[in-house]
Design brief:
- The protein is of the alpha+beta class and 274 residues long.
- The chain contains 6 helices and 10 strands; from the N terminus they run αβαβββββββααααββ.
- The protein has 2 domains: 124 residues, MutM-like, N-terminal (N-terminal domain of MutM-like DNA repair proteins); 124 residues, Helicase, Ruva Protein, domain 3 (Orthogonal Bundle), CATH 1.10.8.50.
- The strands form 3 sheets. Strands 1-6-7-5 form a 4-stranded antiparallel β-sheet, covered by helices on one side.
- The protein binds a DNA duplex (16 and 16 nucleotides) through α5.
DNA sequence: CTTCGATCCTGAAGGC
DNA sequence: TGCCTTCAGGATCGAA
């Protein structure tokens, strides 16, 4: 469900509720996430501490706590994080819940259990295995066509897989990879070794444009994405190709095609993308 | 080193 | 109606 825009939208929506809140208790109802939840460690890190600030790194949501602790949340494919009244009924698949002061609860719901909830020392975040090998932020200063061109040197394989490689650039998942390549007019099957400087520049620009626009529109809600207050996004109405197989291309009117690359759907217009 | 495929898991949707 | 298959927005691991 969530790529960079969805996690960023979530972070922003929680930013008006969580900073300043104190975590009174932590309930773990099911430890079986992508990595087993370490309940004792989570409780030790969070209980009694206030949330200072929220940050996003790649598709991870980071809640920095007092005394150099950080909660790390990842939504996987189906995760939801919302703030609700503390006495709200527990939802199915509500695996972890943080009771906050002011009668509120931060709930983590994840039917498929590909998500992640853990606590780390703030100082060691960068060297933690989840973060150590991540590439650059696509909305940051160091991401541009020249960066892509340098990282593509000596690589083969289709450009779509390259774009989705978190060791290169983070946050671009299956939806926004298709969308950025459509906007850049590049065929997702094209080998990265056969893309020139000018097209890398266009691709970098397209990635930034698509992600920024998706954040503005509150993310993409195909199925179940909601922000921290339970509101769905609206970028799905602005999608150019994703999930539009057989429908007319918004640029040329030709049919949008669906292909499969490394086991995942890719959508493209073969007339507009070369 | 890269690159590909399989895998974790549940639920929704479509075909018959 | 029900049963079966396929597919889904992520990340990791082992094999080639």
């Amino acid at each position: 469900m969530p790529e960079l825009p969805e996690v960023e939208v979530l972070r922003r929506s929680l930013a008006s509720h969580l900073p300043g809140a104190r975590i009174e208790s932590v309930d773990v109802h099911d430890v079986r996430l992508r990595e087993r939840v370490d309940t004792r460690r989570l409780r030790a890190a969070a209980t009694g501490r206030r949330i200072l600030a929220l940050e996003r790194r790649a598709k991870y949501l980071l809640a920095h706590l007092e005394e150099e602790r950080t909660l790390v949340l990842h939504l996987g494919m189906s995760g939801r994080v919302t703030v609700v009244p503390a006495d709200a009924a527990r939802l199915p698949h509500e695996h972890v819940a943080f009771t906050l002061d002011g009668g509120r609860r931060l709930r983590f719901v994840d039917p498929r259990r590909f998500g992640l909830v853990l606590a780390l020392p703030t100082a060691g975040l960068g060297s933690d295995r989840h973060f150590a090998s991540l590439g650059v932020e696509p909305l940051g200063d160091t991401f541009d066509g020249d960066y892509l061109r340098r990282r593509a040197r000596g690589r083969r394989g289709p450009v779509k897989a390259f774009l989705m490689d978190a060791g290169i650039v983070v946050g671009v998942g299956n939806i926004y990879a298709s969308e950025a390549l459509f906007l850049a007019g590049i065929d997702p099957r094209r080998s990265v070794g056969r893309i020139g400087a000018e097209r890398f520049e266009r691709l970098a620009g397209a990635v930034r444009t698509v992600l920024a626009r998706a954040i503005e529109l509150g993310g993409t809600t195909l199925n179940d994405f909601v922000d921290g207050e339970g509101n769905p996004g609206e970028f799905q109405i602005a999608l150019g190709v994703y999930d539009r197989e057989g429908e007319p291309c918004i640029a040329c009117g030709g049919p949008v095609r669906r292909i499969v690359q490394s086991g995942r759907s890719t959508y493209l217009c073969v007339r507009c993308q070369r």
